[in-house]
Write a structure and sequence with these properties.
The protein contains 43 helices and 14 strands.
Length: about 1000
């Protein structure tokens, strides 16, 4: 422990004394031992100059204070004697620190007492600290940083006023301590840096130029604090302070590039931790601007080039700079390397990033030379770094990942042992709760898995699972990283036939996926993050089934399917139990959820916002999401509310089958099953379907609907798909339910709800069967059950818990018709369809042609109990949130409608194309226009799975409404089922016309 370390410990001891007021703090044996060591570390009679003099002053001041305070409490002559001796030295520089009684004695005895240092002299002390910091940044010498600390402390302590000069000294001290933390990894330096910088910021006026430098330093420190602790609050502080400074600084401010650089670092961390894509884009712009305004030859240009390369390599679809992100990043890094020679503190980071970018470029382009270069660069980075630097775990992980990729491509498994060693060392350097442990342990787990595959050593496999499970349990790490680790553990366990262990890991992954898609993000970001786990729901359910836990499988399907739907349902649930138990908490929760919903994140809303408005909305949304989490923790602490707004248990979910069985379908690499939920239990029906076969069928089916130019071939392909669905899926399910024969005339029709997952969502399960002319026509779902669909079990329960309008309430309708839509083919039959319906219901509001605008339709929906749309619809299976109905002045977007609250809504008939089609991407989010309409309030929805025939649509609609008019109790599912069967009876081969119609609802 050097002199400075001892001095800081003495300062901490004095702080404890001032805080507690307990003189025993100064009388403890450890305190006396510390004072003794510190006193004899200095030769007090030596003629010190320069840094040595600054150090002697700093130590003298601390020790003089220590001994004087001890004397004050117990009158010790030894303490008084030593305090007087040390205060004689302090008087030469900062007499204001000397107690008045001692100072008067010095003057009486003509001891030397100097004047307080002038402002120029104090500024000179700080400048000396700045110069030493710059020199250290150029050559990486730790001692220069130690010396800089002494000068900054001298400047602050020799100043009798807490003015801007004093604050500037503390800001510089914070910068020096932060840089030293980066060199040594000593966390106490970072804590001290944060403490002194906060003190400085508190006294600097808003309009003082020094405040910009203070904000820059504070932001940089807060970033490092966040990286160490994972506390998102620190990152928010960094972003807010740096945005204010960087965007508020004059264009000619000399440190503007530094502000932009620090801001970009904070934004990059926000993107990495939360997935906010706008943060990545803003970070790239800030780094590009910082490089642009940095003169050639400036000492900070190399590090700014490295930062820009980092942003380019990790950007999320943002193309502000260049076209090929990896090529440009490699070029920038190789340009920067000559400016950071051996010994330069920025060289390890530059080489580390170069290795990572080369590895990413290999993945993209497949050039094996990039892999070899990546290993060389990563190994050089480790060699260039210090053994104790805060970056060393990152450098070791980068080397291990490069070695792992090299071993996989060149079939050299022996290289993996070096990777394992590097990762074990990296993990040993991190505290148990360090946020980076998840990435390090994840990398270790995957390397051990690869070594197991190469050698067959089961110990490696077991250690891989243990490492990945430990990675998924680090509470401070990003939720996405924890989810990926849990998925990795689940995959390895499942491959080893440990399906119980796999189920536990996949369950943890689903929990983390919910946290990944947290309410603080806009919808596009949540969708992008969820899309990274396309098979998680099915894999979790399959492993649970194979572990003999069918009820758990149902819970996991429900937990992972429709995550964003579940979030939206929070706002539409009255939480009556909470309101009875804690009305104040219920009110606060409603306020937060309502405001979250008002912050529109639909594509149309986001596109019209200005940059500043979007940033304010980001900050507000994140703040509300955190308040929601805090409030939920408070609510769940109440008796009986531990599961409040958590995924429902099986005992709750089984109520969804109260009116008939619900069939959940899941296809995984571990097997394909139908889970039939009944009022009593859940039955498991194995399906003779391979997940690859399902994918091939989905491709063929989608091609028939959208890519096959021959109508005959398209029809035959769809008939083939329906026959395959019957043989492999629907037939076995109905047989298991005892629905093995067609329902005869006058017979009672069984009800069934389909809740498919994954690619099963693309198929017309309700129409499965052998429909060719040569077939008997009895092997079909249409002849055995009335089918409905539900996005999730929670949605089904929600619609049943919220009954429609009372029988006596006005059931006003809305008819929307667009026979001609700008930019779209005409739909001449849509006018006939709407007018026929209006004749049937003349009191319904009728919006057609130019009157059918998005604004008019939205207003009308708030007053109607039923609505009928006869217009164009569209869906993008790659981006299902772009689903829309095409109105006169533009699209009525799926999520614009979902955000509505329609208190009178009961039935919506969407006589438009693709209104129940979801996506190949985000299949388990059930993003369809029909689901959005149901979320807005319509309990029953009639939708379509693909494009419908304009000429046939009026016939289907007329038959549905005719059937509804004959019912004593509203049953849209039965009305649609009868209409479709009638259409099939007339034109059995016209499957493309009658099969797309579906009912969604209770």
């Amino acid at each position: 422990m050097n002199i400075q370390d001892l001095a800081f410990r003495m300062e901490e001891r004095l702080d404890d004394f001032y805080t507690s007021g307990d003189p025993a703090v100064l009388r403890e044996a450890e305190a006396e031992k510390l004072a003794h060591r510190l006193y004899y570390a200095i030769d007090w009679l030596a003629p010190y100059t320069g840094t040595d003099a600054a150090r002697a002053f700093n130590v003298a001041l601390l020790l003089a204070t220590f001994h004087f305070q001890r004397f004050q409490y117990d009158g010790s002559r030894e303490d008084a004697k030593r305090a007087v001796f040390l205060y004689q030295l302090v008087c030469l520089t900062a007499p204001h620190h000397v107690p008045e009684t001692v100072l008067s004695s010095f003057r009486e005895h003509s001891d030397e007492v100097n004047d307080t240092p002038s402002e120029s002299r104090l500024a000179g002390y700080t400048a000396q600290g700045v110069n030493l910091l710059k020199e250290a940044e150029a050559n990486g010498e730790r001692q220069l940083l130690d010396d800089a600390v002494e000068w900054c402390l001298l400047s602050a302590r020799a100043n009798p006023r807490q003015d801007v000069l004093w604050a500037e000294a503390l800001v510089t001290l914070g910068n020096v301590l932060t840089r030293r933390y980066e060199y040594t990894g000593d966390e106490k330096d970072l804590d001290r840096a944060f403490h002194v910088t906060v003190k400085a910021v508190e006294v600097i006026p808003e309009d003082d130029p020094c405040r910009l430098k203070a904000s820059s330093g504070f932001g940089h420190i807060a970033i490092r604090m966040f990286q160490r602790t994972g506390e998102i609050h620190m990152l928010d502080l960094a972003v807010n302070a740096l945005r204010e400074a960087a965007y508020g600084a004059p264009a000619d401010f000399e440190h503007r590039a530094a502000l932009l650089t620090n801001l970009s670092s904070a934004l990059s961390e926000r993107y990495r931790h939360t997935g906010l894509a706008d943060a990545a884009a803003e970070a790239l712009d800030a780094r590009a601007e910082a490089v642009r305004i940095t003169p050639h030859g400036h000492p900070d240009l190399p590090s700014r080039l490295v930062n820009l390369a980092s942003a380019l390599a990790s950007r999320a679809g943002h193309a502000a700079v260049g076209d090929d992100q990896h090529d440009e990043a490699v070029t920038l890094l190789r340009e920067a390397l000559p400016f950071v020679p051996d010994g330069h503190p920025d060289r390890p980071g530059c080489l580390h990033l170069l290795g990572g970018v080369l590895r990413a470029r290999f993945t993209q382009k497949g050039d094996p030379r990039d892999l070899a270069d990546a290993v060389d660069a990563s190994r050089s980075a480790v060699q260039a770094g210090t053994a104790s630097g805060y970056l060393r775990p990152d450098l070791l992980r980068g080397l291990a990942e490069a070695l792992s990729a090299y071993a996989g491509h060149f079939a050299e498994p022996g290289v993996l042992t070096e990777a394992v060693t590097a990762l074990q060392e990296a993990d040993g350097l991190l505290s148990d709760d360090h946020p980076d442990r998840t990435e390090t342990l994840s990398a270790l787990g995957f390397v051990l898995r690869d070594r197991f595959k190469a050698t067959g050593n089961t110990a490696d496999r077991d250690q891989a699972v243990a490492a990945l499970r430990a990675a998924s349990a680090v509470p401070t790490a990003p939720a996405q990283a924890r989810a990926l680790a849990a998925v990795g553990a689940g995959e390895i366990a499942a491959d080893a036939k440990d399906f119980t262990g796999a189920t536990a890991s996949y369950a943890l992954a689903l929990e983390q996926l919910e946290l990944t898609a947290w309410r603080g993000l806009e919808r596009p970001d949540r969708e992008r993050l969820i899309a990274k786990f396309p098979s998680l729901v099915a894999d979790a359910a399959a492993c649970a089934v194979r572990a003999g836990k069918a009820e758990r499988a149902v819970e996991l399907v429900e937990q992972g399917r429709g995550i964003m739907l579940a979030q939206a349902l929070e706002t539409r649930t009255d939480h009556r139990d909470l309101r009875v138990r804690a009305p104040e908490l219920a009110d606060r929760l409603s306020e937060i959820l309502d405001e979250l919903e008002r912050l529109s994140d639909s594509p149309s809303g986001l596109a019209t916002r200005e940059t500043q408005e979007r940033r304010r909305a980001h900050e507000r949304r994140a703040a509300l999401a955190r308040r929601r989490e805090e409030l939920l923790a408070e609510i769940r602490a109440l008796p009986g509310h531990a599961r409040f707004l958590r995924p429902p248990s099986f005992s709750t979910l089984r109520a969804a089958a109260a009116r008939g069985p619900v069939v959940l379908l899941a296809a995984s690499q571990y097997g394909c099953w139908a889970l039939i939920l009944t009022g009593a239990d859940v039955r498991v029906v194995p399906l003779a379907v391979d997940v690859r076969q399902l994918a091939d069928q989905a491709v063929a089916f989608l091609h028939a609907l959208g890519g096959e130019p021959s109508p005959l071939k398209a029809r035959n392909a769809v008939l083939d798909s329906l026959a395959w669905l019957w043989k492999k899926v629907a037939g076995p399910v109905l047989d298991a339910l005892g629905c093995s024969e067609p329902v005869g005339p006058g017979g009672e029709w069984p009800r069934l709800w389909w809740c498919p997952t994954g690619l099963f969502t693309l198929f017309p399960l309700h129409a499965a069967g052998n429909h060719r002319a040569a077939d008997s026509g009895t092997d079909t779902a249409l002849d055995r059950v009335i089918s409905s669909y539900t996005p999730t079990l929670r949605v089904l329960l929600h619609t049943r818990e919220h009954p429609g309008p009372p029988a006596g309430e006005d059931t006003r309708g809305l008819i929307v018709s667009l026979p001609s839509t700008p930019g779209r083919p005409d739909l001449p039959a849509a006018e006939n369809e709407a007018r026929a319906l209006h004749q049937r219901y003349p009191d319904a509001q009728f919006l057609t042609g130019p009157a059918a605008t998005t604004q008019a339709v939205t207003r009308a929906l708030t007053h109607c109990s039923w609505a009928h749309f006869a217009c164009h619809g569209s869906q993008d299976i790659a981006q299902p949130s772009r689903g829309a109905l095409m109105l006169h002045n533009g699209p009525l977007m799926l999520w614009d409608l979902a955000n509505l609250r329609l208190p009178h809504a009961e039935l919506a008939f969407l006589s438009a194309c693709e209104t129940f089609r979801g996506g190949v991407v985000l299949a388990d989010e059930a993003i369809t226009f029909a689901a959005a309409v149901q979320l807005a309030g319509f309990r029953h929805v009639v939708g379509t799975l693909w494009s419908i025939d304009d000429a046939q649509a009026p016939i289907v609609a007329d038959r549905v409404y005719e059937n509804l008019s004959r019912q004593d109790t509203l049953d849209p599912a039965a009305a649609l089922h009868a209409a479709v069967r009638a259409m099939r009876a007339e034109r059995p081969q016209a499957v493309l016309n009658w099969a797309p119609y579906v009912h969604v609802g209770p």
